[in-house]
Write a structure and sequence with these properties.
The complex is a heterodimer of chains A (about 290) and B (about 280). By secondary structure, chain A is mainly α. Chain A has one domain: MetI-like (MetI-like fold). Chain A is built from eleven helices and two strands. A two-stranded antiparallel ribbon of chain A has the order 1-2. In chain A, α3 packs across α6, α4 packs across α6 and α10 packs antiparallel against α11. The longest helix of chain A has about 30 residues. Chain A is globular and about 65 Å long. In chain B, α4 runs parallel beside α7 and α10 runs antiparallel to α13. Chain B has about 280 residues and is mostly helical. Chain B is built from 13 helices and no strands. Classes of the chains: A mainly alpha (about 290), B mainly alpha (about 280).
Chain lengths: ~290, ~280
């Protein structure tokens, strides 16, 4: 059959996928490759020469106290956030799924803060801590806690929706008491507060495993890349006590004019993110095999 | 038995009310502060309500935010990026899902690798390539970057949605001699509408609220976005909190309005992403 435009169906198909491929390659893949290349140079970002320094940047990083400090803060923020945010999100999801009144209203209120730009959230809370004379951002020992509160306020509702979707995708038959009798008590969520006829229905924790994987990975990755919030809430301070790794890269490249070195720090972050993705894939695969 | 059940129900509802109030407190304080005069900000208790609800801060914020430029820019970047993103994701996903062969499978995997690395981790080379290709300080440059960084998720979401689109209509179109383009635009794209809507909404929030890319890509005032200007407003007029809080309300309201009107698609989209994993 002849096509009216004159090119064959294969070429037409190709022409539909090509623009996306080009944009993606230019905007994301090439930057990844050039970033890796810059990490082996001592480029300052301005001069045309790119002096090759091999692994020097990576070796320098090992002894750089500022980088170590930024990693320390970022990892502490990530680990605590992952634990607290998943816990709270799951708790609120279970409560909202238990047949509570005004479920939609609560869901909307909990979700509302994530519509606010993280940059704006930082300003709002910095001002509020001041107004309430609760100066968590003023002290290096409490700044992490202050930021965790803001981040949880913003994102718990989002992850709660993910868990809620997970809970609602569990087939109702699986709530039957008989089916979960064998499982240890702590792995089951009773539908607390549900009407009497559902009082004894419990959800086995393994049924939520896909949502938990998404929650853990999503919050981990989201916390590792924290930047906007820190810019507005604390500016990395007091001192350098809340300097995140992205902020450190930003300062190294733009204020310190060390693009090569900044790129090397980026590469370590990307390596960590890739590692997390590989582990996630493994976990998902293993689960598929089990089923 | 019944009694403990009722008690539990009461406790749960009370708990959720407390949580909801705690979550709304910062929002309430922003709105409250935005109506106060400068004098009230320094003399009165921050928790007091304003004496009279005046709009001076809002008129000041409109001017200081350069709303006629920043608002238009933000809307423009968000709408154009999200439409191109929806179209390119749908087109790529359709071709990938309906063609067999190694090339298409590899294309899918190529796009999906982008999901592994969030763009924030790549901001430095993204800035450098933009600078070298003269994309910085242009409207199309920043749109291109929003599209590029959103494509991996877009292709992923659309490809998983393609399995629910019936083949029969497309086959009928082919039998009738429709070109690939016509089949896509007239038969497939209308069927993909719910998925495109979901994608558009999910991405619109990220782009509207973005600070990192916008601050890197545009330094000229005529191209700046609301978040970038808000950041400036806060660092330059540190003492004028009433105006700053009014600016926050103004810049957040549009996205809240979008959410409220399209909540259904938004929640569905999150659920679809969550269940597929």
């Amino acid at each position: 059959m002849h096509t009216p435009t004159g090119f064959g169906p294969r070429l037409q198909s190709l022409s539909l996928v090509l623009p996306g491929l080009v944009v993606f390659t230019v905007g994301l893949v090439i930057p990844m490759v050039i970033g890796l290349y810059y990490s082996f140079t001592s480029w300052d970002g301005f001069t045309p020469e790119l002096p090759w320094v091999g692994l020097d940047n990576y070796l320098k990083m090992l002894g750089d106290e500022n980088v170590r400090n930024a990693w320390g803060f970022t990892l502490a923020f990530t680990v605590l956030n992952t634990i607290v945010q998943n816990g709270l999100a799951l708790l609120f999801a279970v409560i909202l799924d238990s047949g509570i009144r005004a479920k939609k209203l609560f869901r909307t209120i909990l979700f509302l803060p994530c519509l606010i730009a993280p940059l704006v959230a930082g300003y709002i809370w910095a001002r509020m801590y001041m107004d309430l004379n609760f100066m968590l951002f003023g002290n290096g020992d409490t700044v992490l806690m202050g930021l965790l509160i803001v981040n949880n306020w913003q994102w718990v509702g989002y992850w709660m929706l993910i868990y809620l979707a997970g809970l609602q995708s569990i087939p109702p038959e699986l709530y039957e008491a008989a089916q979960v009798d064998g499982a240890p008590r702590w792995t089951q969520f009773r539908r607390i507060g549900a009407p009497r006829w559902t009082q004894f229905r419990r959800i086995p924790l393994p049924m939520l495993a896909p949502s938990i994987t998404i929650g853990v990975v999503g919050i981990t990755v989201g916390s590792l890349r924290v930047y906007d919030l820190i810019v507005s809430a604390t500016g990395g301070g007091p001192g350098r006590s809340s300097m995140s790794i992205i902020y450190q890269i930003y300062n190294t490249a733009f204020s310190g004019k060390q693009y090569g070195y900044g790129s090397a720090i980026s590469v370590t972050l990307i390596a960590l993110l890739m590692l997390i993705a590989v582990v996630q894939l493994r976990v998902l695969r293993r689960r598929e095999v089990q089923q | 038995m019944k009694k403990t059940g009722t008690l539990e129900r009461w406790a749960l509802h009370a708990f959720m009310v407390v949580v909801a109030l705690a979550i709304l407190t910062p929002v309430a304080m922003v709105v409250n502060t935005s109506f106060k005069t400068k004098k009230e900000l320094y003399t009165a208790n921050p928790l007091d309500l304003p004496q009279n609800w005046q709009l001076d801060n809002y008129t000041a914020a409109f001017q200081k935010l350069h709303m006629e430029t920043t608002f238009v820019n933000t809307v423009l970047y968000t709408v154009v990026s999200v439409l191109i993103l929806g179209f390119l994701s749908a087109a790529s996903a359709w071709v990938i899902a309906r063609n067999r062969g190694r090339f298409y499978k590899a294309t899918y995997l190529y796009f999906i690798t982008g999901l592994l690395v969030p763009f924030q981790a790549l901001f430095l080379p993204i800035y450098i390539i933009g600078f070298q290709l003269h994309l910085t300080n242009t409207a199309y440059g920043i749109v291109l970057m929003y599209v590029a960084t959103g494509l991996p998720f877009g292709v992923f979401l659309m490809t998983s949605f393609m399995t629910t689109v019936p083949l029969e209509l497309e086959e009928a179109a082919k039998m009738d001699g429709c070109s690939v383009y016509r089949t896509f635009f007239q038969v497939v794209l209308p069927l993909l509408q719910p998925a495109v809507a979901t994608l558009v909404i999910l991405q619109a929030f990220g782009i509207w609220n973005d600070y990192l890319l916008a601050s890197l890509y545009v330094s000229e005032t005529r191209l700046k976005t609301l978040t970038v200007f808000l950041q400036q407003l806060f660092s330059s007029t540190a003492r004028d909190y009433g105006t700053a809080m009014a600016a926050i309300v103004i810049s957040t309201l549009p996205i809240v309005a979008l959410f409220v009107s399209l909540q259904k698609y938004f929640i569905k989209g999150l659920a679809a992403g969550a269940v597929k994993g």
